[in-house]
Design a protein that fits this description.
The chain has 199 residues and is mainly α. It has helices at 3-21, 28-35, 39-42, 49-72, 78-99, 104-110, 115-138, 147-171, 179-197. 76% of the residues lie in helices and 0% in strands.
Length: 199
C-alpha cells in the first residue's frame, strides 16, 4: 500500500475517533487500532495527535466549503450570497467545535497549530468571496471596486468578531459562546460594507 493511501486511511480513522471520543479523549492508540497500525507506526506519518487533528480539520473544511459554495450559488443576489456565505462559515466553525467536543481551552491551544492550514483555507475563501463581489459588480448590484481587498476585509472582520466573542466567553467561563450574537454582528457589519458598495 502506498504511503499516500495509508496516510488517507490514518486521516479517516482519526476523523472517526475524534468524532466518537472528542479531541481530548482520543489517543494515538485509538487511531492506530482503527487503522491497524501501532502507535509507533503513526509517527511515520505524523509528529503527534495535534498534527493529525489539523489535517483532519483541513480535510473537513475543504469538503464543507465546497458544499457551501455550491449551496449558495442558488441565491438570487450577490449580496444574499455574501451574507449567506459569511453566516454559514460561522455555523461550520461551531459544528467543528461541537463535533470534536472541543473545550474553549482546547480551541485556544489548537488554533495556533492550525494557523498555516487556516491561512490556506482563508486564501481559498477570499478568492471565492471576491468572485461573488465581482459577480455583483457585473450585475450592476455593486460599484466597481477591489473585490479581493473587500473580500479580505470581510473575512478579517468576521473572524475578529468571532474571536472577540469566544475570548469573552472563555474569560467569563460562560460555556459556549453566543453564536447568535456573533452571527448578528457579522451580518450587521457585512451589510454596512455592502451598503457602501451599492450601485
Amino acid at each position: 500500500m502506498a504511503k499516500a493511501e495509508r496516510k488517507a486511511r490514518v486521516l479517516k480513522a482519526a476523523s472517526e475517533c475524534f468524532g466518537k471520543y472528542g479531541y481530548e479523549k482520543t489517543t494515538l492508540d485509538d487511531i492506530g487500532k482503527v487503522v491497524g497500525l501501532n502507535k509507533a507506526s503513526l509517527y511515520y506519518y505524523y509528529k503527534n495527535k495535534e498534527d493529525i487533528f489539523c489535517d483532519v480539520l483541513y480535510q473537513e473544511a475543504e469538503i464543507y466549503m465546497a458544499e457551501l459554495q455550491k449551496k449558495i450559488k442558488g441565491s438570487r443576489s450577490a449580496e444574499a450570497k455574501v451574507l449567506s456565505y459569511l453566516s454559514e462559515r460561522l455555523n461550520y466553525y461551531r459544528t467543528v467545535v461541537n463535533l470534536h467536543n472541543l473545550s474553549m481551552d482546547t480551541v485556544r491551544k489548537v488554533e495556533p497549530l492550525f494557523t498555516e492550514i487556516y491561512d490556506k483555507i482563508l486564501a481559498k475563501e477570499s478568492v471565492f468571496l471576491a468572485s461573488l463581489i465581482k459577480e455583483g459588480v457585473e450585475a450592476g448590484e455593486f460599484i466597481k471596486s477591489d473585490a479581493s481587498r473587500i473580500a479580505d476585509v470581510m473575512l478579517n472582520v468576521a473572524t475578529s468578531i468571532r474571536y472577540r466573542q469566544l475570548h469573552v466567553s472563555y474569560v467569563r467561563m460562560a460555556g459556549e459562546a453566543d453564536y447568535n450574537k456573533i452571527s448578528d454582528e457579522i451580518r450587521y457589519v457585512t451589510k454596512l460594507i455592502l451598503k457602501g458598495m451599492k450601485a
